[in-house]
Amino acid sequence: xxxxxxxxxxxxxxxxxxxxxxxxxxxxxxxxxxxxxxxxxxxxxxxxxxxxxxxxxxxxxxxxxxxxxxxxxxxxxxxxxxxxxxxxxxxxxxxxxxxxxxxxxxxxxxxxxxxxxxxxxxxxxxxx
Length: 128
Fold this sequence. Notes:
By secondary structure, the chain is mainly alpha-helical. It has a domain of 86 residues. The chain is built from six helices and no strands.
């Protein structure tokens, strides 16, 4: 059963021709790009708000101690602390708003990483 392999005339060519793709890629790279700071997602805008409030906070030993204590709590205790701070936040004082911004940073991994990126952008001068 050794038969010669014959290529059919309707078969596709063996080599893929990428020359049009390279030209399109080069022309797309030459187009003007939108500035990244002006195109933010909603959660990035929230993170910038939290980062600005955190930068306004004074860094005191009490804040460092409160951070260390909060990080040792389990999830249920963290939720109870966040709920009580949220009830205090209804008074709209600067202290309660700063405390709620600080606690929102630790609510989820996404919020933590987005706030860290926003802080880095604000400190480097990229932010708004």
